[in-house]
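Bug #2210: token dump truncated for CsbC protein?
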Amino acid sequence: TLGQTLCSRFLLGLTSGGLMAAIIPLVAELLPARRRGFYLTVWCCGRPAGALLAVILSCLLPRLDWTNFVFMMSAPAVVLYVLCRLDVMPESPRYLYLAGRREEGFLTLAEMYDKEMMCLPWGPDSVSLTTSSEVKEVKSGLRSLAHSDAAITAWLCLVIFSSHCASQCMRAWIPMILATGSSHQSPVMLLALSLLQAESPQPHPSPGLDRHLVMVAAQGYMLEICGIVICAAISFALTRRLLVRGALCAAAVLAIAATLAERRNLWVTAGPLYGLALVANAAAANFLLVFACERFPTSSRASAVGLVLFFGQVAELFAPSMGVIMLNRFSVQSAVLAFNSLYFVAFLLSFQLPLPGHHERTLHDIEAWFSCLEDSGPRDV
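Reproduced locally. Full output below:
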């Protein structure tokens, strides 16, 4: 039923959103001192890999029912749960100190420094815990307010909201056309196709899949996987400012070009353009989160990243709602182009962020190691 489908989608979104909000700060907390951008973004290729797996399963097993399909897609989550129960994933040192397990927390910190071939300069009793950001003196003036953590978080949320709206439309564009059977129809669904099907007691007849559109989707996901890995590998040589702003601008241009190519049935061109647009979108979103992890210290990093991801999830809820309204008045291509223009909005908003114009530097937590030779006082986790 429609209610059951809505409940299942809510639980799935709650779980996936919670995992993202927890894993990103954990990875940032356990980061090495070098090639930080690579380790923070390379694992994000799992999303297009899962989408590619879904396309392959749909083509190889066309008669597979929805229940078994969803079960197969949820299998990696079960594997992740088993690995967590086996303590394969390390625990957060901050949580260990917060829970009173100081010995385990200190051992985790020692292992982190040992992997970096660095000596932990503090003893077990000299490490303290900070539960919130230290209160700093508030300076008067609009300039100090514009560069405050609250203002930066607000701008980050707006940039993520705009880019995720465009991203959600772009990701649903080809699957929507595949589901409706034609790119020239005007369906009243953009991302809620499964919900509308669940509301109807009689299943809709599924038209034959267009192999050109399947090829476009598969090419897009494969290029996105390769692009995420390449962007992660070159992140140490490029500045965060170039990676974020350049990716947002490229995503806008490539998304519009892919829409126009599909409109003219240029399948050989539409596939690579669609994939490159997904690559640019993933690079912008990933390195915005990297900037959030680098900007905020350990004591406030999790809350800041969680708030930014929350606005991204709100955008994914806002996009289908606005999509249904726009599709009732405009064509599919017009709605897609309107959503793609939000990339330009995100690009303009990104100029309000103090994106670093230099190459990678050590995190605030690791920078304290260099000053330990002059000051042997207690350090915060």
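Output looks complete on our side. Strands lie at 127-128, 379-380. Marking as cannot-reproduce; reopen if the truncation happens again.
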